[in-house]
Amino acid sequence: QLACPLDLGCHSVKRCGFFDEAERKMNASKLASMLSEKPKSASRIQREAVRAKNVKRSDFKNFGEFYPFYLTQHSNSANRGLHFFGTLLALIIVGYCFAMGEYKFLPLSLLCGYGCSWFGHFVFEKNKPTTFKHPVWSFAADWKMFWELLIGKRDF
How far is the C-alpha of 141 from the C-alpha of 133, rounded, in Å? Predict the structure, then answer.
């Protein structure tokens, strides 16, 4: 069997009736709309993929379901870099506080960590941080992404 020349979801030319007049108009219309669409960014494609699986932002049953969604919200490399930098800076500040007994600087670690991350979301990713709806899972996911970036499992 022959494949559909435009790959519009048909299984074969013979079965789908691609060359019928009505079918041809419909496929031409579909092709025209596909060609007129703006190219989608990687982050938009990833977010659409999550939506396509009927995963709503609040329907996560466990961390395993949440983490892939979290990654779709961090598709911009500048945003991931700011998350990494903010988390590293927070880790250094916490280490300093415990090593030197200067616990008054602990809130600074939160300010640096969340400040860098939220800046990345608002300026580069142009989305709302997942911290607002899922603070605990988001905190855990940030550390997981930090580790994956550190060991090279995930790119900046």
Answer: 13
